[in-house]
Amino acid sequence: MEFFILALLAYLLGSIPSALLVGKIGFKLDIREHGSGNMGATNTFRVLGIKAGSIVTLADILKGTAATLLPFILFDLELNRLIIGLFAVLGHTYPVFAKFKGGKAVATSGGIVLGVNPLLFVIMVLSFLITLYFSKYVSLSSMITGIVAIIASIIFKDIPLIIITSVLTIFVFLRHKDNIKRIKDRTEPKITWM
Fold first, then answer.
1. DSSP state for residue 191 in the 8-state scheme
2. Beta carbons within 8 Å of 7's beta carbon, 6+ residues apart
3. Contact indicator for 14, 89 with CB cutoff of 8 Å
4. What is the CB neighbour count within 10 angstroms for residue 100?
5. pTM, 2 dp
6. Which of 33, 39, 138, 179 is the least buried, fewest Cβ under 10 Å from its Cβ?
């Protein structure tokens, strides 16, 4: 019973539509009607700017981290917290509070990792930033970071982490299938460095 309560709470946490809330409260604007229409941090950066994008990124990360802490906070269960974190990713991607159309799971997946292995989270952030610097593709940087997370998990010899980072990376790749096509066609938008 405790597992189902935790899974539901993690899903509801993940369902909090950070980009939608920041857009509507701060800018009187529905982020889903602008840019790519995606309700994630990347679209928020492009449409609303650095400050709004940073707030959404942080909020989406913390949703994943908070979900991994729920077993400690509520029940003190001996339960692999990565599994509960997966439900936050599902909530972020298919949010009940936003007609089940959410973001692409990158930041919230990172938040799960932060909750269980902060060192791996730092490695992921560095991987993302380095790849982004050279490629200028947010989508490609997200996918490469997933691969780096799997490799690092193997080096750490952490079986649950290997499994969950693999599942999350596959999910991130699936969520970016349109981006992959655009990268191949060279029509994927690049970021510009100031």
1. P
2. 84, 87
3. yes
4. 11
5. 0.89
6. 33
Question: Using a CB cutoff of 8 Å and minimum separation of 24, what contacts does 24-31 make?
Answer: 26/52, 27/52
The structure tokens listed for 131 are 């790849």
The count of residues in the chain is 194
| Amino acid found at 72 | F
Cα 93 to Cα 15, 62, 107, distances in angstroms: 8, 15, 11
pLDDT recorded at residue 97: 87
Count of helices and strands (H, E) across the chain: 10, 0
Asked whether the beta carbons of 175 and 105 are under 8 A apart, the reply is yes
Cα dihedral angle (48, 51, 113, 36), rounded to 10 degrees?
10
Place of tokens 């509070």: 97
35: left (phi over 0), alpha (psi -120 to 50) or beta: left
In whole angstroms, what separates CA 126 from the centre of its chain? 15
Q: Can you tell me the distance from the alpha carbon of 160 to that of 140, in angstroms, rounded to the nearest whole number? A: 25
User: pLDDT tier at 13 (50, 70, 90 boundaries)?
Assistant: very high
